[in-house]
């Protein structure tokens, strides 16, 4: 075929429809068995979406079930597809979009190591007190603080510790639950 005869584009004007991406928190109740986490995470990676936060733990010991909390950013259409495919996985019992359902409580825990002396050390302690961070380890040269709260609070605390001698940060990822008497 002659290259000059190939169509170069559509003859119809179709406006591009780009959905805005949204941050969502999903919880997934699954059987606690090998390979389940890999299958759940695989649904995200197969579509090229990053997981911003991931927490997993057995929550129903007698039934051997775990709760996975995933925070991701995607378009509503893609998130809807992911939820439907998650619900079809055999070891998955329930999927909830806590962001869409509203009124969820979200918390994160971080351990923050800060090294310093003199005024920096005093300022680190003052800020930790203001943020209600607990000193869980102290030496003459460093502190390790434990801070719990919304992710934005943790990020703000970490940012304030940078000029004071931030050494290292370890974060658990988001834990989330709905308000009210109903459970998952």
TrEMBL record:
InterPro entries: Acetalactate_synth_ssu, Acetolactate_synth/TF_NikR_C, Acetolactate_synth_ssu_C, ACT-like_dom_sf, ACT_dom, AHAS_ACT, AHAS_small-like_ACT. It comes from the Bacteria. GO terms for biological process: isoleucine biosynthetic process; L-valine biosynthetic process. Keywords: Amino-acid biosynthesis, Branched-chain amino acid biosynthesis, Transferase. Pathway: Amino-acid biosynthesis; L-valine biosynthesis; L-valine from pyruvate: step 1/4; Amino-acid biosynthesis; L-isoleucine biosynthesis; L-isoleucine from 2-oxobutanoate: step 1/4. Its EC number is 2.2.1.6. It catalyses: 2 pyruvate + H(+) = (2S)-2-acetolactate + CO2. Residues 25-100 form the ACT domain. Pfam families: ACT_AHAS_ss (PF22629), ALS_ss_C (PF10369). Belongs to the acetolactate synthase small subunit family. Catalyzes the conversion of 2 pyruvate molecules into acetolactate in the first common step of the biosynthetic pathway of the branched-amino acids such as leucine, isoleucine, and valine. This is Acetolactate synthase small subunit. It comes from Pelagibacterium lacus. The lineage of its organism: Bacteria, Pseudomonadati, Pseudomonadota, Alphaproteobacteria, Hyphomicrobiales.
């Amino acid at each position: 075929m002659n290259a000059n005869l190939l169509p170069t584009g559509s003859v119809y004007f179709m406006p591009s429809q780009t959905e805005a991406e949204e941050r969502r928190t999903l919880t997934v109740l699954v059987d606690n068995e090998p390979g389940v986490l890999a299958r759940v995470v695989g649904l995200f990676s197969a579509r090229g979406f990053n997981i911003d936060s991931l927490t997993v733990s057995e929550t129903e010991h007698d039934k051997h079930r775990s709760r996975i909390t995933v925070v991701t950013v995607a378009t509503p259409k893609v998130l809807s597809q992911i939820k439907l495919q998650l619900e079809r996985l055999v070891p998955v019992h329930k999927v909830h979009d806590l962001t869409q359902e509203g009124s969820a409580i979200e918390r994160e825990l971080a351990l923050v190591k800060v090294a310093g002396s003199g005024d920096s050390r005093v300022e680190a302690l003052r800020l930790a007190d203001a943020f209600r961070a607990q000193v869980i380890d102290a030496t003459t040269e460093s502190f390790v603080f434990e801070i719990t709260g919304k992710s934005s609070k943790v990020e703000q605390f970490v940012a304030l510790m940078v000029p004071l001698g931030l050494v290292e940060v370890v974060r658990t990822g988001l834990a989330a639950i709905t308000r009210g008497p109903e459970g998952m």
